[in-house]
Amino acid sequence: MSLNKPSFKQTQIEFAAHIRNPELNPKPDTIEDRRMAIYRDLFINSISGLLSGSFPVIRTLYNDDDWQKLVRSYFKKEHNKTPHFPEIPREFVAYLKGHQNIDISKPFLYELAHYEWLELHLEKHSLEIETLNIEIDDKLLLNQTPIVSPLVRLQSYQYPVHQIKKSFQPKDKLEHPLFMVVWRDINYQVQFSTMNTFSALLLEKLINQSELNGRQLLEKLAAEHQHPDQEQFVQFGLQTLKQWFEQNIIISTQ
After folding, report:
1. What is residue 47's DSSP assignment?
2. Rounded distance, CA 11 to CA 30, Å?
3. Calpha distance 71→47 (Å, rounded)
4. Which of 30, 113, 143, 177 has a 20 to 30 Å separation from 231 between CA atoms?
5. Would you say 96 and 113 are in contact if contact means Cβ atoms under 8 Å apart?
6. Which residues on neighbouring strands pair with residue 250, listed in sequence order?
7. Phi-psi region for residue 226, left (φ > 0), alpha (ψ -120 to 50) or beta?
8. CB neighbours of 77 closer than 8 A, spacing ≥ 6?
9. How far is CA 149 from the centre of its chain?
10. DSSP readout, 23-40?
């Protein structure tokens, strides 16, 4: 195999393979181990530092040795493929999704990583939003279609990811899914809120449809759930819409 490649190219391949997984790939013969150790530490420490800053809660759950093992397991060639530094946290989440048994003591690890990445993703997102300078009253929210900010994400989790910390690491899934909305407001602050089933369903409908106005959507949901008092249901939903507008989850109507 090496006969068909220039010697420097083969050295590069061996160098990269050794950096990623030194236990399985010997260093190039032309590089002394003292110098190679500098590169081994430099690369893994760079990745470790980036992931520590991107996933601060996860980092607190591990001692230094176990954290390095986790980072090293991700750093292998088959997992860490992106050449773009900002994309490394996203790939780390994808790695944990595909290896959800990598740490059986932390069955929540993938979901926690996804939640932390989502906050980071929205914080760094280049998109900027503007809200209407006018007050949106009840009539507008009901007679027009509320528009959800593009910096809103609705997620469901099987673990209470917003509560996990070193002293609270749940082993069992929740009895019912946890619905959460994560968003960035007009002050560039990332916010989150847990939601009940109705609120999650309403927000999902708003995100995925544009043909119904607020009242029509609420009336449709009331009919689907066979609510005995449709107008009461609409008024309850209206209060939710008003709160979302104040929180910059809804940014306008059309």
Report:
1. H
2. 8
3. 7
4. 177
5. yes
6. 148
7. left
8. 16, 17, 20, 21
9. 17
10. TTSPPPTTS-HHHHHHHH
Length of the chain: 254
Each residue's pLDDT, cut to its tens digit, for the chain (254 residues) gives: 445 555 756 656 556 665 666 666 666 666 666 666 666 666 777 888 999 999 999 999 999 999 998 998 888 755 556 556 778 899 999 999 999 888 999 999 999 999 999 999 999 998 888 765 556 778 889 999 999 999 999 999 999 999 999 999 999 999 999 999 999 999 999 999 999 999 999 999 999 987 899 999 999 999 988 888 889 999 999 999 999 999 999 998 88
- CA atoms of 72 and 75, how far apart (whole Å): 5
CB 103 within 8 A of CB 74: no
Instruction: Spell out the domain ranges in the chain.
Output: 2-124, 138-253
Query: Are 57 and 161 contacting, i.e. CB atoms less than 8 angstroms apart?
Result: no
User: Could you give the CA distance from residue 80 to residue 94 in angstroms, rounded to a whole number?
Assistant: 10
The whole-angstrom separation of Cα 211 and Cα 190 is: 29
CATH of 138-253, one of 1.20.1420.20, 3.40.50.720, 3.90.930.50, 3.60.40.10: 3.90.930.50
64, amino acid identity = D
Contact status, residue 165 vs residue 62, Cβ threshold 8 Å: no
Q: Which two tokens stand for residue 160?
A: 């209470």
- Strands (E) located in 1-115: none
Residue 244 in 3-state DSSP? helix
d(CA 27, CA 44): 15
Cα(70)–Cα(52) distance, integer angstroms: 11
Q: At what angle do helices 109-124 and 88-98 cross, to 10 degrees?
A: 160
Sheet holding 152-157, edge to edge: 152-157, 178-184, 190-195
